[in-house]
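Field guide to reading this record: the first block holds the primary sequence, the second block holds the structure written as discrete tokens, and the final block holds curator observations. Each block starts with its own label. This record concerns Sialate O-acetylesterase, catalogued under organism Chaetoceros tenuissimus.

BLOCK 1 — SEQUENCE
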Amino acid sequence: MSRRLLSYIISWMALLTSHQVYATSNTPPTFQKYCQGTSIKCESNHECTSSQVCRHPFEWTAVEEPDHSKKLKVFIMMGQSNMIGYGQVHPVQTQGTLLNEISNGNYPHLITGFNGTHATWRERRDVRIVHRRYTSSEQGNTHLSVDWIDDSFVGLEVQFGNIVGHVFDNPILIIKVGVGGRSMGYDFLPPGSARYTSGGKSYPGYGQCPQVSNGNAIQATEDDCGSCRSHTGPTCPVFWDSIETCKSSCGSGSHAGQQYDNDARNVKAILSDIHSYYPDYQDQGFEIAGFVFWQGYNDQFHDGHPARYKVNMQNYINALMNEYSEYEGTKKFVHATVAFGGNEPHSDTNKDGYKSAENVIYQAQKDVNGDDIPAFKDIVKVVDTRPFWRSGEESPVANRRHHYHQNANVYMDVGNALGWAMVDLLLDTDEFASIQGTYQPSAPPTKTPSTSPSLRPTSTPSASTFYPTKTKSSSPTSEPSSSPVISREQEKEQEKEQISTIFTQAMTTSSAYSLTSKASIYSAVSLFLFMMYN
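BLOCK 2 — STRUCTURE
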């Protein structure tokens, strides 16, 4: 046996050993739905699941009953109208509706049947959802499906919920709160936010409200003083400092931070009555796994809000962590940027593009993440949603720019990206969120970033980015054929390249390699090459 063939065999054995050890003893429970290393033989493009069933790697697992011995994972979704969800589901013949995409073979995991016009929606038995907008207005409180309220519109919770339900065996409860038409600079303003002045106008701090006749006013000037509540004279304050006074004032009686307060009140009311919202709860305990946030439209209409957005957003995240500190859980935070107009600026020829104030908000949102803010490391991830923008011409409603033209794909794509960003944070990995915008998010999730099997890719990965595909590989069965006379150095390089190819193939066929397993494989191959060539 030649040394070259021996090198292949030893390298391949090292890889298989590392893979087998990882697959049989170190596989995270998260991914036990897909197994490796069993004696069950499947077709080349299928894998053996833990229940010994051959399944295509891109196929969603059947919706399973959750493991009620594990804690209930709670995800809290907040924001304004696009968090509520305005992706059209019907009609099937209209481009950009969910049914139109399903008729083209996309989102198969959402249905159990489709007759060409209507779908029978799959219900996730392991994920429940409730939406409370106001203190008494409640929708849902049911298992997650496209029609968990009705099947007129779809929101990002559908794809987000399918991803976390697919990844985790825990029972899951999604609590969605919030109301449309809310700004970060006023409605979501968190506790601790101080009053400030910008452009000659004053903006209230948390708990304050302007003394103006318009109860929805968000900003004020000294000239507004005295126009409400019978206060006159040059010494009266521009803002009331008491929330109770604001509530009893003229107009709507709103105060800065009122939506923040309402959301917290609603979430805590639901958490205090878990059995009513997760009937199968067996007192095994629950944890707040994370928060999901999508907002940013209304802040553009008040001059002082865009420039203040980054500060307010950071304060908002910190306030949430403090607000829910009494509850167990990892409390990760994922949020999405605004995407209005996509990547092109607004101009005379591109009326759909982003506007200057929207761009300021977008940049502020992008900057609030764990990579740029050390205090948020491993806690906060942001999703850039501009790659998911669809124009009015390819959407159900051409003049609904503020609701992404009610294109269902946008809401599915954003939910998909936020779901994988949350998985990254909870599993302490960077494997999944990095593929956002480079593959078709409608595709069922895979264990390793890959190009999508969908026929409708959203974009093309850059040439410098490597996305491994799932391909089966086999070890060499015979010695490579003889080649023309080459130098020993060239021969070494060829052998290294061939070993590297085997290594790459083994990595891309594995189920969900952790950093530990990757390191062990790298170490084995590196040690072998060092011993052989040094």
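BLOCK 3 — OBSERVATIONS
The chain has a mean pLDDT of 73.
The chain has two domains: 3-57+470-533, 72-184+257-435.
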